[in-house]
Amino acid sequence: MADSPILPAAPDRWMEGKWAILLTGLALTALVTLISLFQPNFLHKADLFVYDQLLASRAVPAQSADPVLVAIDEASLAAYGQWPWPRYRLAMLVERLHAQGARVIALDFLMPEPDRTSPEVILRERLRDQVDAPTLPATGNADSNSQRLAAALAKGPSILGYFLHFTDRPTGDQPPNPPTPPDGLVVTRLAGYPELPAMPSAPLRSLPQLTGAARGEGFTNAPEDLDGTLRRVPLLLTVDGKDYPSLAFAALLAASPDRHIQLAREDSENILRWAGRNIPLDASGHLLLDYRRPPPAAISALAVLQDQLPADRLRNRIVLLGAQATGLGDLHRTPLGKPLSGLAIHATLIDNILADTFVRRPGWARGAELALTLLTGLLATVLLSRTGFLVSSLLVTGGTLACYAASQALMSSRGIHLSPLLPMLTLVLSGSVLSLLKYGITARKLRLRTRDLLDAQDDIIISMSVLAEARDKETGGHIRRTRRYVEILANQLARTPRYAHLSRFDIELLAKSAPLHDIGKIGIPDAILQKPGKLTDAEYAIMQSHTLIGAAALSRIVSDSGHPEKQTFLDYARQMTESHHEHWNGQGYPHHLQGDAIPLAGRLMALADVYDALISRRVYKKPYTHAEVCQFITEKSGSQFDPDIVAAFMARNDEFWRVAEAFADPVE
Questions:
Q1: Which residues contact 81 (CB under 8 A, 6 or more apart)?
Q2: How many whole angstroms from its chain centre is CA 364?
Q3: Secondary structure letter of residue 536 according to DSSP
């Protein structure tokens, strides 16, 4: 048995598709890895978003007794007036906090200018503006309100805040009027620890008389991430060999007898060692904040000023004092979604350190993410190349969820941030692209197989028609020409409103049917079929039966196919074979059909058959000219031929002539 022409190509096509999937998967994995190395903004923002979701699942209530937040809130402003308050009132507040036994008081607001509510300041301004000034008692101070606050600060450990202008390229120059770190602060850098980021120049500090009275200072602000969210804060900044702590860390140092700090590099991680704690820092020396839910609650300054607190409420506690009323603008966007005040941020930092709970981003995390991305991409490519759409979808979905769940478990249990974004992106991208590629490869294989089947089908059709041609020696290229004629006519008819329903598929079926229109001649005796002279009436009647013979044979094929209800080219071929000798006026054969009762396939072949018979040379006649044939067909419009089909022929008769020349029978 001969081999099928379709089967040998199938393994090659399968291997070609498999290699295309494997190479595409590897390319996608390499692309994700390459993009991750450059960290474009969209990828960085996506990574930050995933980090926020992981951190939110870890958020727990505060775990340490410190610190206490004392806020100048709406109730305080309603009782004592708008902010900023006179500094004598702030002095009263600080004095009461010291009296309550606070260990350290950290003030989270700036006072860089004299208090304009001081009598001396008011007098100077009225004189400057040439306004009558009342006589005021001489105090000997330029700013008595600030002086009273300084005296209150000096009564106990207190830390003042200052503001830094963070820039993309910090300077290493010593800033003018540098802040005062807590007394006794000693920072030791062990071998391997990278240089801390330099502090920006020109910090905005409070008045010297205030900073001189405090035990130290700390910066209050921190740079935000690309999306404007505050996720990390520096604990120390250094410039010209001196180290400066943040406000919260300075408060911790002031509250502890241990002022010695070690900066070390341990297990690919930056570590700040202090008071028996190992505080993890990221590559920039920042601490990732482990935010609490709910955020720390604050005590109203009104309750402190009116002595409404229990006696031991603040004893031996770190107190963070600041303005937290609505509209004062000290709010920061956080990963938990709800904005937090600066006071709550400082409290979170202190709570993280005292509770010894941290979020870590080890130095090996980046390498682990890239390795996991490569491994995930390779496994996904191999598995997706061998599975179907449903299994591939389950693999991608399950793998994506598994990556996220593993990162979430690592964050929740150990506080280690290992981003699942790159492996997840690799899985989703590989799954989507490879599924589309597999669909395209499958569709291409199907098209190729369908084309092979159609080619085989065409070969069978030609073979069947050649059987008739082999017995009718005068047929020649008749079957090839009539096929093109029918296709030209059908295409032209499809442009008219009446036949607009003709699809490309219908036209193709009609053209395929054309070679079989004379298949019934197989059943005609040779004596009649090959008779060189004129047929007798009896012989002509037998010759006419070829339409019924061919139709019966094709009907049998359709019936035996097992799907007689399906519309195939054999249905058009049967109609064409049976009715292509019918006339529009009902004078044709074999059924004397009239007008639209004649199937369209028969009407098309009727004109195509006559044109070819007239234009071609036969042993019993000479060929007509193209013009003579056109005139004959026009004269027979409405009698032998469908007028619509005649109109279609006249619109494209020049194409008929080109086909007749291209497929002309050889001259003997």
A1: none
A2: 28
A3: P
CA distance 33 to 53: 23
Query: pTM for this one?
Result: 0.69
Give pLDDT, residue 8.
43
Q: What is the mean pLDDT of the chain?
A: 85
The token duo for 226 is 């690309």
Beta strand pairing status for 186-189 and 260-266? parallel
- Please answer whether residues 105 and 156 qualify as being in contact, where contact means their C-beta atoms are separated by less than 8 angstroms: yes
Share of the chain above pLDDT 90, in %: 50
**Closest C-alpha among 514, 420, 515 to residue 466:** 515
pLDDT for the residue 22: 84
- How remote is the C-alpha of 402 from its chain's centroid? 19
Name 416's bridge partners: 360
Average pLDDT over residues 545-558: 87
Q: What is the 3-state secondary structure (H, E, C) of 366-409?
A: HHHHHHHHHHHHHHHHHHHCCCCHHHHHHHHHHHHHHHHHHHHH
Q: For domain 472-662, give its CATH number from 2.40.50.140, 2.130.10.10, 3.90.640.90, 1.10.3210.10.
A: 1.10.3210.10
Measuring CA to CA, which residue among 648, 627, 613 is closest to residue 487? 648
Strand-pairing partners, residue 288, are 232, 359
* Closest residue by Cα to residue 609 from 482, 438, 442: 482
First to last CA, the chain: 39
Q: What is the CA radius of gyration of the chain?
A: 47
The pLDDT tens digits for 443-481 are 777 777 767 666 666 666 666 666 666 656 555 578 889
- CA separation, residue 627 to residues 559, 593, 617, 642 (Å): 43, 29, 16, 19
For residue 172, the model assigns a pLDDT of 46
Q: Which of 254-263, 427-436, 631-640 has the lowest mean pLDDT?
A: 427-436
Q: How far are the Cα atoms of 91, 96, 166, 219, 286 from residue 222, in angstroms, in the given order?
A: 27, 30, 8, 8, 10
Report which of 150, 539, 105, 565 is spatially closest to residue 343, judged by C-alpha positions: 105
Q: How far is the C-alpha of 120 from the C-alpha of 210, rounded, in Å?
A: 17
CA distance 40 to 37: 9
Rounded to whole angstroms, how far apart are CA atoms 249 and 234? Answer: 9
The single-letter DSSP state of residue 624 is P
- C-beta neighbour count of 569 within 10 angstroms: 20
CA angle 426, 430, 436 (to 5 degrees): 155
CA separation for the pair 154, 136 (Å, rounded): 27
Tokens 């937290």 belong to which residue?
324
Confidence of residue 385 (pLDDT cuts 50, 70, 90): confident
- CA-nearest of 85, 533, 68, 592 to 344 is 68
Give the residue among 558, 565, 476, 457 at the shortest CA–CA distance from 518.
476
Domain assignments of the chain as residue spans, ordered by start: 25-57+364-443, 68-114+149-163+197-256+280-355, 472-662
Q: Is the pLDDT of residue 599 over 70?
A: yes
Collapse the DSSP code of 350 into the 3-class scheme (helix H, G, I; strand E, B; otherwise coil) and give the result. helix
The pLDDT tens digits for 28-62 are 888 888 888 888 999 999 999 999 999 998 888 88
pLDDT tens-digit series, residues 619-638: 667 899 999 999 999 999 99
Structure-block tokens of residue 615:
């234009």
